[in-house]
């Protein structure tokens, strides 16, 4: 860990603390710091500081000073920011299994003792039959027809066939009370933006079941062929969840469309999925402003639309001839008779949902989820985020992205409540909702955390109910997530990286392992990871290295087909073999550190070659983000010079205050170069460009190739004028 700019804890003085925390009792802070130093080792000292000194009211500058001071001289770039408490570990889902079953998990068939998380991970790969049976039993998963086995060889499926012969319905499992959990308990808790002082809204599991059955009966009244694709394009609120589950319950297929999409993107997804109908809203409410949504659906030439009035009005003006208001749609069935529904049980590989890749390079990949995929999503939540019966799970997202359906399944299949806020997650209103709903697991994308940190909108709130955070979607910042942990008494951040085609994660963290900031402590259960060397061959699994990441194809819940592309070509052609199996391509670049953590380095195509050295854009950006207080974020781009030659490093800079200016860009470039010398003295910034914002996909990933193209074209145009 870099330490040259940070004082070791023992060297921090009262004056240092006073400067970092004006108005605080620096003498008392220093005395507490000295007491913590009586602990043995930096990990123990940091743990004591988190427990006794670093409450949310202490200025973050102190948190940061003590964190970096504590781990000054630490031999690894991934010091543990959180270490599990053995007393808490035995209460986790995995801890209970290890405590109750341990060596006897599968009797005499497996001789190695299973006493730790790594033991269980190894077991999940070597004995999928026993591992997944155990998980399904603990989660209370029900099959209408039991599978003949958990997994078997089958050349028709990449990585073999899961749950052969099984029939089930994922929505039925969501709507069935789990052992020890009453159907009268809350399934969904929510609040609308602007009503932050109002009581929370609750829906019990039984009321959710009745509403889902009502909508399922109303969908059948549309007389669409069973198995038809039905789109949802609306914010992720209670109605959206009810509609989603109703479509699956009734044997149709959800088409997930993000409510942020413009008409052309909506149209493309409707055509790719061959959707026969679409559920939407007339408007989206944000800050009490009405943002048109139905008009975008109409512009996309969507099929029959069922339109929900956002303000609760019964009348919606200007509907197309074949479109229905929500009231008229529900009016097709008898409410009393429609509170029950005979679910359509289907084979395990029947489609339930069509989701899409971001589609930044052209037509998005249409990725089907089956009835197996929800089990993968929920199992990740059970194992890695430790979602338990009675928990409250929040993750601001949308059904148009995989984390939307993931939230539905990871909460309901585990007997937890889903917490939904109908408004912007960047606001103090959402932060207060987290407090009032007593959220136990809060999932986020890093950009939200960055906004909270910059606006301090969580000040004065009590987040002590949170047991862990989780993070996905983009690379996180050590400082931002150190700040985040401090808001909840230093609860861990479980990093989570996967993909729509995986149905969940392939690398993540665990509540039974120490967690480092911006790092992953383990491959997901049932997943083997491989880092490919420069020749494209897998490194030994436990070796230190950096390169493109590949997956063992025997991965529960992962895709087996694409609707508009050759699945084999996209994920397997040209990949190396391991133990007779062709590895699965993912495209991310990862590093395995000397202490066993994994660190993400962005997409493989975001890797630059500077001075003959491969480096991730994200690694450079983390450094450049800190060189000036006015910088909000940066993007590092390798731009080929006019006429060819080695890539030149250009830094695109977004300022916190768009109305302000950095007068001397040469000074900023010099500051970047000085900071980058600590990473590698050969890295040199060629130019710094101020931009109003970074181009992003709808799922918030930075599109560096767009900037690369713009900067290359600008350089070419400038050269042509000379």
TrEMBL record:
Required cofactor names: Mg(2+)
Domain called AMP-dependent synthetase/ligase: residue spans: 183-549
InterPro entries referenced in this protein's UniProt entry, alphabetically: ACAS_N, AMP-bd_C_sf, AMP-binding_CS, AMP-dep_synth/lig_dom, ANL_N_sf
Chemical reaction(s) catalysed: (E)-4-coumaroyl-AMP + CoA = (E)-4-coumaroyl-CoA + AMP + H(+); (E)-4-coumarate + ATP + CoA = (E)-4-coumaroyl-CoA + AMP + diphosphate; (E)-4-coumarate + ATP + H(+) = (E)-4-coumaroyl-AMP + diphosphate
SUPFAM superfamilies, per database record: Acetyl-CoA synthetase-like
Biological processes per GO annotation: phenylpropanoid metabolic process
A single MF term (Gene Ontology): 4-coumarate-CoA ligase activity
Taxonomy, superkingdom: Eukaryota
PROSITE patterns: AMP_BINDING
Keyword annotations: Membrane, Transmembrane, Transmembrane helix
Enzyme Commission (EC) number: 6.2.1.12
Keyword Zinc part of the UniProt annotation: no
Homology family: Belongs to the ATP-dependent AMP-binding enzyme family.
Record's protein name: 4-coumarate--CoA ligase
Annotated source species: Zea mays (Maize)
UniProt lineage: Eukaryota, Viridiplantae, Streptophyta, Embryophyta, Tracheophyta
Name of the gene encoding the protein in the UniProt record: LOC100285971
